[in-house]
């Protein structure tokens, strides 16, 4: 998924294979199987291109990360404590990013309230 997200465009098995082979030896069939599994799970869409497929991510990496965080938070028996613990694990730069995101969410929320 990392390659598909990084490139942000439809990719072929061959493209992913060639990129991965820069780092390690890997078989074409392995990459093909992984991309097919991702398609079966609904993580990527694919379109036929000749005898091959082009694969494209269904959602962004940010949306996927947000869904994971939401799932983890919503299954907690004490969501407030989970958030406090999560914030405690964050590096200063991550906390700054969180503050920026909260400010943006507030601005978006205020704009929506004014529109109503």
UniProtKB/TrEMBL annotation:
SUPFAM superfamilies: Winged helix' DNA-binding domain. One of its GO terms (molecular function) is DNA binding. GO terms for biological process: negative regulation of DNA-templated transcription. Keywords: DNA-binding, Transcription, Transcription regulation. InterPro entries: BlaI_family, WH-like_DNA-bd_sf, WH_DNA-bd_sf. Transmembrane segments: none annotated. Pfam families: Penicillinase_R. It comes from the Bacteria. Belongs to the BlaI transcriptional regulatory family. This is CopY family transcriptional repressor. It comes from Streptomyces noursei (Streptomyces albulus).
């Amino acid at each position: 998924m990392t390659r598909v997200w990084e490139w942000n465009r439809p990719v072929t098995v061959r493209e992913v294979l060639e990129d991965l082979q820069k780092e390690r030896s890997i078989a074409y069939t392995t990459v093909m199987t992984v991309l097919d599994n991702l398609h079966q799970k609904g993580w990527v869409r694919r379109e036929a291109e000749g005898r091959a497929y082009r694969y494209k991510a269904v959602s962004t990496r940010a949306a996927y990360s947000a869904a994971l965080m939401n799932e983890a938070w919503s299954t907690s028996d004490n969501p407030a404590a989970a958030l406090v613990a999560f914030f405690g694990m964050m590096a200063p730069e991550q906390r700054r990013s969180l503050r920026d995101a909260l400010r943006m969410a507030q601005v978006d929320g205020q704009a929506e309230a004014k529109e109503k």
